């Protein structure tokens, strides 16, 4: 899984332009919101993937969103259900939702309401891209297993939930790039060199 590629798709010029058009915020405002809020949102994905109480539901949600076609960003975002997007943000940010949204709003100079719209528009696309990657990982694992000797083929295939957790899964990938675990900060500048530098390059 390549975080650079995933973030590149999520924060493409088309994505930023459509978030701006649909929310009524400037593209600079959109970038400021995302640079502030995305580290916390991805940290929430890490927590969902690594928590045995949430990982199965999170995996099922990812695979459900993986069916969405994100190739046409304008078409995809025009169909986003803002209520559903808001619920996704709520699941990922948990008790930190209000604080993270407020900080992003302050950083961008926007209202909390408009900031919430930007995040709600982005959330389904994030889930779709993560879901597609999880699905591709599952398929690659299945192909690899069919090429193994018969006795190894009889071993159970990994579920989406098991692929998400642990050092080799989604949780491990993002934890490493976020600086090795959870952080109380919602600022991209404090989110670890990996993600911080990616966001700076994509959103400058």
How do the helices and strands line up, and which of them pair or pack?
Elements: H1 3-10, H2 13-23, H3 27-50, H4 55-65, H5 73-78, H6 82-93, H7 97-108, H8 112-146, H9 150-153, H10 160-164, H11 170-177, H12 193-203
Taken from the alpha-carbon principal axes, the silhouette is: globular
Order of helices and strands: HHHHHHHHHHHH
What Rg do the Cα atoms give? 17 Å
| Residue windows where pLDDT falls under 50 for at least 5 positions | 180-193
How many beta-strand runs?
0
Mean pLDDT: 80
Helicity, as a percent range: over 70%
Number of domains: 1
Number of helices: 12
Strand residue percentage? under 5%
- Helix-and-strand structural type: mainly alpha
What is the CA-CA span between the terminal residues?
A: 24 Å
The largest pleated sheet is described as: none
Question: Which properties best describe this structure?
Answer:
single chain; 204 residues; globular; mainly alpha
């Amino acid at each position: 899984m390549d975080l650079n590629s995933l973030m590149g798709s999520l924060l493409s010029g088309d994505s930023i332009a459509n978030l701006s058009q649909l929310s009524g915020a400037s593209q600079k405002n959109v970038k400021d919101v995302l640079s502030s809020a995305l580290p916390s949102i991805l940290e929430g994905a890490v927590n969902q993937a690594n928590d045995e109480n949430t990982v199965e539901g999170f995996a099922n949600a990812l695979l459900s969103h993986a069916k969405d076609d994100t190739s046409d960003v304008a078409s995809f975002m025009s169909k986003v259900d803002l209520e559903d997007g808001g619920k996704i943000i709520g699941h990922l940010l948990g008790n930190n939702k209000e604080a993270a949204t407020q900080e992003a709003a302050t950083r961008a100079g926007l209202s909390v309401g408009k900031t919430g719209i930007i995040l709600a528009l982005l959330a389904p696309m994030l889930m779709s891209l993560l879901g597609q990657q999880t699905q591709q990982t599952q398929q690659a694992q299945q192909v690899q297993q069919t090429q193994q000797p018969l006795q190894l083929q009889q071993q159970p295939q990994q579920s989406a939930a098991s692929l998400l957790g642990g050092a080799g899964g989604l949780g491990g990938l993002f934890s490493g790039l976020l600086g090795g675990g959870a952080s109380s900060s919602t600022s991209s500048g404090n989110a670890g060199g990996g993600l911080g530098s990616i966001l700076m390059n994509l959103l400058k």
